[in-house]
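> example.struct
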């Protein structure tokens, strides 16, 4: 790195947060010879949420759990999985740090950044130094964190953990209570059940995954219950208290008060943007009522030279969205400025249960509520004789569902609850983005045996939905 005043740095770009969007932008501009400062609050977060406390460690733990015979209790395997996952994230963290630190034009500062005016950041480093960074452009990418609701005892009971804390727990909890039947809660519930924990999911709504079609969420619920998970819906948690080495979770359901004992309590009740103590007011940066940084379709904040990428801007909380945020900002800084979030279409997402639930587009219920004339096909994986791949890998649970516009034959959405759906959904999304019809996808030639060839049978079963 070039010699720089340790108290004052002038930069073309300053990035707050080492997440996917920010680090990719920093590396790209750094390779172009721009002066870049990357500021990350913790050395344990080089590379961002995904590789340290999000996608990578959770999927590593899920992958290892899928190699265990269902129905057993595997505390030793769980402990080894935690150790292996820690090694994995440590290696990735080092790779991500080196990606920027090895660039002569990039300076990595580890510490807390705070705006003092629209172009200036004051950084309190972990080694006690105070460094002023003045940058022409600034990117805020501080991510999100789990929400801890105002429930009696939730903040003080030692057995209560967020997803971040639970991921690094070395001992398998014999009993795990999961507060929340959404994507994070169910992914952890399925994983810990596979390792042998007795899992209870408490969902305050009438059903898990309320944004999905009822048949899809019901199918997943049956799969989870079949793996031994107890799911309680319409459950309002009122308090959590310590009971010796365990915790007691009290909740209301069916008009009565109930309790469940747990060695670990996972709070999976949503996430919130991390924007406190950034000095956003000093930079005149507008935030929403939910605390997110307000941005336009080009990810510009109320200060046109300041951008916000990733979870902190209140958009979809996916690593690949943060990567696309990078493309939008890069277009503003070095391109023609034409790329924007308004052009995004058919963005898929996946819940990594076993099997995974992959989704893209709109649901059948949403299409019908909007008055659309649609065709729908829904088939249980076990009934799809032309898809032997599921039988080969002994994973026939789940269903596949697709919604198609009757007049145009365009695919409106799909829900794939099946083996390898996290890969197959990308084919559907690509077809939707490029105007490939359901008929073309139905009649395409696919490798055999694969899960993708399910489209031959699934799309051949399209019919008007029953009223």
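> example.seq
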């Amino acid at each position: 790195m070039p010699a720089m005043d340790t108290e004052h740095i002038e930069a073309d770009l300053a990035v707050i947060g080492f997440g996917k969007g920010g680090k990719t932008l920093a590396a790209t501009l750094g390779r172009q010879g721009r002066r870049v400062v990357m500021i990350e609050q913790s050395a344990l977060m080089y590379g961002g949420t995904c590789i340290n406390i999000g996608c990578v460690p959770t999927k590593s733990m899920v992958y290892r759990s899928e190699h265990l015979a269902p129905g057993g209790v595997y505390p030793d395997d769980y402990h080894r999985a935690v150790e292996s996952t820690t090694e994995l994230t440590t290696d990735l963290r080092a790779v991500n740090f080196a990606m920027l630190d090895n660039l002569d034009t990039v300076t990595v500062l580890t510490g807390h950044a705070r705006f003092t005016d629209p172009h200036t950041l004051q950084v309190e480093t972990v080694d006690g130094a105070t460094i002023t960074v003045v940058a022409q452009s600034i990117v805020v990418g501080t991510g999100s964190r789990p929400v801890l609701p105002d429930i009696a005892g939730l903040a003080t009971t030692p057995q209560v953990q967020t997803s971040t804390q639970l991921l690094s727990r070395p001992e398998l909890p014999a009993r795990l209570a999961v507060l929340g039947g959404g994507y994070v809660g169910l992914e952890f519930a399925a994983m810990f059940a596979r390792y042998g924990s007795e899992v209870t999911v408490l969902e305050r709504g009438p059903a898990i995954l309320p944004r999905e079609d009822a048949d899809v969420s019901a199918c997943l619920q049956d799969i989870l219950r079949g793996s031994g998970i107890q799911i309680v819906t319409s459950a309002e948690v009122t308090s959590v208290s310590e009971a010796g080495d365990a915790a007691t979770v009290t909740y209301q359901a069916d008009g009565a008060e109930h309790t469940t004992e747990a060695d670990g309590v996972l709070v999976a009740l949503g996430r919130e943007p991390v924007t406190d103590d950034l000095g956003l007011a000093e930079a005149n940066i507008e935030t929403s009522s939910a605390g997110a940084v307000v941005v336009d379709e080009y990810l510009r904040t109320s200060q046109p030279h300041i951008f916000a990428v990733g979870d902190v801007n209140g958009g979809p909380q996916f690593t690949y969205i943060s990567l696309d945020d990078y493309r939008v900002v890069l277009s503003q800084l070095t391109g023609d400025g034409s790329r924007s979030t308004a052009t995004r279409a058919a963005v898929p997402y996946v819940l990594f249960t076993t099997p995974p639930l992959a989704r893209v587009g709109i649901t059948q219920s949403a299409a019908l509520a909007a008055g659309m004339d649609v065709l729908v096909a829904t088939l249980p994986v076990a009934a799809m004789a032309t898809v032997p791949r599921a039988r080969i890998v002994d994973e026939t649970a789940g269903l596949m569902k697709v919604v198609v516009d009757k007049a145009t034959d365009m695919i409106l959405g799909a829900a794939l609850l099946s083996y390898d759906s996290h890969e197959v959904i990308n084919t559907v999304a690509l077809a939707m983005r490029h105007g490939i019809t359901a008929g073309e996808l139905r009649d395409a030639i696919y490798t055999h045996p694969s899960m993708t060839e399910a489209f031959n049978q699934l799309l051949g079963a399209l019919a008007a939905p029953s009223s």
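> remarks
Confidence is low (pLDDT under 50) at residues 1-5.
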